[in-house]
């Protein structure tokens, strides 16, 4: 809006937000940019942030990300124009989300265990160096 006060602190926070958007935890959000038709407000919000930023590394980062947003007309396929919404829902309902979630959690736990093991080995090496 027109009454927004753009301060150095505000710009710093927007810069931090852009950096966060590029983190692995926001991969899902970035993938939503591919679905232009269903996420117009997300794309508009990111363009709004881009317009607030001065020319900086955060500006370049966000600008480059938004250049990757596809043209919705180019994303149309022959199959998608023929397929009905009912068919898509039937296909989606055949997915066992509980099984997918359990698999995801199992993989995440393995990653966490590996990280702990690496941290434990590093700690043991530090102790040896100190002794």
Compressed to H and E, one letter per element, the order equals HHHHHHH
Whole-number count of domains: 2
Share of residues in helices: over 70%
Radius of gyration: 22 Å
Query: Strand-residue fraction?
Result: under 5%
The separation of the N and C termini measures: 61 Å
Poorly predicted regions: none
- Largest β sheet strand count, sense and barrel closure: none
Outline:
flat
Number of strands: 0
The chain-level structural class is: mainly alpha
Return the average pLDDT rounded to an integer.
82
| Number of continuous helical runs | 7
Molecular structure report:
With 131 residues, the chain is mainly alpha-helical. The chain has 7 helices and no strands. The N and C termini lie far apart (61 Å). Pfam families: Vac14_Fig4_bd. It comes from Syrrhaptes paradoxus (Pallas's sandgrouse). Keywords: Membrane, Repeat.
List strands and helices in order, with pairings.
Elements: H1 8-21, H2 27-32, H3 40-52, H4 57-67, H5 78-82, H6 85-93, H7 97-130
Main location: membrane
Pfam families: Vac14_Fig4_bd
InterPro entries: Vac14, VAC14_Fig4p-bd
Tag the structure with descriptive keywords.
2 domains; 7 helices; 0% strand; flat
In short:
By secondary structure, the chain is mainly alpha-helical.
């Amino acid at each position: 809006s027109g009454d927004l006060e753009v301060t150095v602190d505000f710009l710093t926070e927007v810069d931090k937000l852009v950096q966060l958007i590029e983190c692995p935890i926001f991969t899902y959000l970035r993938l939503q940019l591919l679905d232009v038709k269903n996420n117009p407000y997300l794309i508009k919000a990111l363009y709004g942030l881009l317009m607030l930023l001065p020319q900086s590394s955060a500006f370049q980062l966000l600008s480059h990300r938004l250049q990757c947003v596809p043209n919705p007309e180019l994303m149309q396929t022959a199959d998608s124009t023929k397929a009905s919404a009912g068919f898509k829902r039937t296909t989606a309902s055949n997915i066992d989300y509980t099984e997918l979630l359990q698999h995801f959690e199992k993989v995440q736990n393995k990653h966490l265990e590996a990280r702990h093991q690496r941290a434990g080995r590093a700690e043991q090496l530090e102790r040896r160096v100190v002794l």
